[in-house]
Amino acid sequence: MKGLHPRILDWFEGKFGRFTAGQAGAIPEILEGRSVLLSAPTGTGKTLAAFLGVFDHLLRAQEAQVLPSGIVAVYVSPLRALAYDLQKNLQGPLEEIGLGFVRVGSRTGDTTAKERAAQRRRPPHILVTTPESLLLLLSQPKLADSFASLRYLVVDELHALAENKRGVHLMVSAERLEALAPRGLVRIGLSATIAPLEEMASYLGGGGKRPVIVAPPAEAERKTLIEVFSPLRRDPYPSAGYTAGRVMKELAALVAETRTTLIFTNTRSGAEGIGYGLKNAAPDLADRIEVHHASLDREIRLHVEDRLKRGELRAVVCSATLELGIDIGSVDLVVLISAPKGVARALQRIGRSGHAVDRVSRGILVATNINDLAECCVTARMAERRELEPVRIPRNNRDVLAQHLVALAAWGGFTPDAAFALVRRAYPYRDLPRGEFDRVLRYLAGGGKSLEQAYTETFGKVALAEGGALALPRPQVARQFYQNVGTIVSESMVRVRKGRRNLGEVEENFIKRVEPGGVFVLNGQTVRLVKTQFLTATVVDARGAVPNVPRWFANKMPLASGLAREVARMRERMARFFPEGGGPHDLAPAIEWLVEEYGITVRNAEALARQMAMQARVSVIPTTRELVAEIVREGNKVHYFLHSLIGRSANDALSRVLAWRVRRRKGGNALVTVDDYGLLLSLRDFQALDAEDWRALLNPEGAEADLRESLREADLVKWHFRGVAQTGLMVPRQVRGEARRPKVLQWSSDILFEVLQKHEPDHPLLEQAYEDATHGFLDIKRAVAFMEEALTLPVRWVPVERVSPFSFGIYVSGIKETMMMEDPETAIERLYHELYHDLERTADAA
Question: Is the entire prediction scored with pTM above 0.85?
């Protein structure tokens, strides 16, 4: 650390005493001008490690009287709130070190016109921004001088960007910055949970030099304590159904005995439900329990964050909004309601507690049903070993490419060849074919071959200037581009307003089902609908009434592949304790093994063992050595339960391929239900399948083509096209500064979708919609891998008299949505005990 300026070194040692392992590894590399990927647990000073090198650079420049007037460092965050926090948090160290001359500025969607104008006149030395705002800056050539002294790019929460189109957006912008930086760009990527490190370093480095990886062992930085808790006692709850309501008493006790608790759920609906239940379970603390998720009004979220920082709250129930590194003060405990479907996500959330180097991160995984208990056990074990799942990086996104080509045309000086070379230096486009690039360019010239004849004026956004460089055909194209940058799609949402205050947003489809006078919960408040008008729902307080919980449309998080494999391995290792068929099994050996292997309580181990024993009695315990399909006959229907433990997205893709092939092979339609653990194929007698049929259905050859054919009649691709059309600038979200209504956006997108489907099925934006549907929302790659593996395994046909415990979750998955006269949790539990009451008594006797 001798390379640090003495003033900075003295300040650091006086304030913190010692460097963490991550800081000690990263800072010398940054001082030498090398790019760094720093992977270390939350609370170990990663952000400070990045900026000490920037401070050193600025202080030495000031002492040498060569302090630049422009931007030296760009910090990019996935969240505006994180950018806002960093701007505030940098001021303290700068003042304490004596660097008051350093200007820090924020450029996000919240930056006022007055602030933007001031930044143009006098740019900040450190610019704090988001991927979208950065591209806006890089589409204005008059700002070129502001970047003339650029040296550093800091990307925070790299894992949260790398897995989506916002990261693709940023990586092309990074290549733009690389070309502007006179001495090259020092890229610094920060993440607590990212893998694989080698590929992510290449992702960050792009066309520049590959960053140095600094990833000290987690135990060298901070200790993490992870516990598994479940309400399961002697009488196990069913393997499906959101039974989190049963943990309210225990959850209230945890909140009462802990200074500050952060409670994560996997959905916004879950956050509202838990928040409402927790307030009722702990009425004395209700005014210090808040809810926080993306559909709440921004002012409400900021108010919750401020109260949390000031230590005024005992608990906040949230979805993913507090997962990233927003400064939320001191949190003593993190509770995860249900397994979060991924090890990285679990570590990220648990790392929010004990947010300091010398404190222990404490997390509790609360299992809400039997399958969830198995997931929680495996998640805790893998998290302790930091066995992270790899980030899935989007590739060759045509809609994001369209935005950057318009930005390059606005900046000026880029020929198509130069633009292609620049884009290919970004890791997500490293293998982009020139033909794909040219097709996107043709679309931008006039809409594509099906639209350019009559609509070039409407869709044309890029032209060639006299010298062959990309240019904008009309000045208004630039204005429209500035208003529509980004990959965040407008959805049809209804604003909920109580008095003069906005509470947040709910989906239009939800509010349509609520009659005036109906009661629902939002922001943890029970409200009654008065009226709905112009996408605004007016509500009043309804304290004491029993509410509905809104459901927000979102792709449910699928079980990560590594976790799925570990759950399958747990089942396989437990199968040895439970031979198929026969009488009651001795549970003791399995319980002893589970307690020793996973460190769970005897009661939880017993619940898992009992489920395994019942599965062995009814059917067989699936293993990786064979493919198990259970068959249940019900009247003139036959149900096939395929145990394909590959996650919801992959099972969804697989089920659509199978249903399409059944239709071609047998005729008629197939009813399909999926979850993380398998799929249910419900057919009529004339569609019944034999072994030969199954071999044909599971043939991986042509599976992706069959999936695409099956999607032609589904709404899934049309839904994705709406987002692609907005990102690809075909359907603008804003026109002349006014946001277009979601209904208008949907109508425009759907018309264009039908036109392209019929007249130009290979249009780049339509191709991107299919890509997003099959490889983003669905996971055809993982489904095909399963099909290839299935070819090598014997298929085990297991006729069963009743649905097996392992298949129960898929069997009842529709009950929660359709049952109105009975509480879904009660209905599912009642059905479970009706199916297995005799086996439960046998297990009790054993």
Answer: yes
